[in-house]
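Long-time lurker. I teach an intro course on protein structure, and each term I like to show students one example going from raw sequence to a predicted 3D structure in token notation. This year I'd like something fresh instead of my usual example. Would anyone be willing to generate the tokens for the chain below so I can use it in lecture? Attribution to the forum is fine with me.
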Amino acid sequence: EEYLAALEMSEVKLEFCDGEMYAMAGGTPAHADLAASAIGLLRAALLGRCRVSTSDLKVRVEATGLSTFPDVSVVCGERLVASIDRNAITNPTLLVEVTSKSTEDYDRGEKLNHYQRCPSLQAVLFISHRRQQVTVVSRNANAWDTHEYLPGQLVAVNALSLTFAVDELYAGITLDEA
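-- Reply from a regular --
Happy to contribute to a lecture. Here you go:
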């Protein structure tokens, strides 16, 4: 309740985990461009099958209590919301995180561990801010598989019958320096 009240009054997005609130830093132009590119590609590919949303949509992982704002969220089917937070969905099908220098380790580590506890989630895409590379972590029965995609390759998310070109995702975007 305290988190939801603080979030409502805050001028920045706040993430909540393990009883702590964390302010989410603003992104770079490359980060914003990559998120927008991903939204465009996903929306076109999934139109009529799934709803694609920006980082304004909050996701709550009920099993762990994490409340966060992924860069892109996809829900296939009806959206379900948290009983304690009507503005947070609990059933994402696909989540996208554009990496940044300050959050990459957390996104690929602890945050991914939270995401994987969400029963509806089929895949997480990590879009690199430093090089043209997309990492897909996808559910495979009771395990999770990881695949890396580089320039010239097609990213595949089999559970959603989704493919798109790495080159198209990164077209016209100047990446951040490492």
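Some talking points for your students: The radius of gyration is 16 Å. The chain has four helices and 14 strands.
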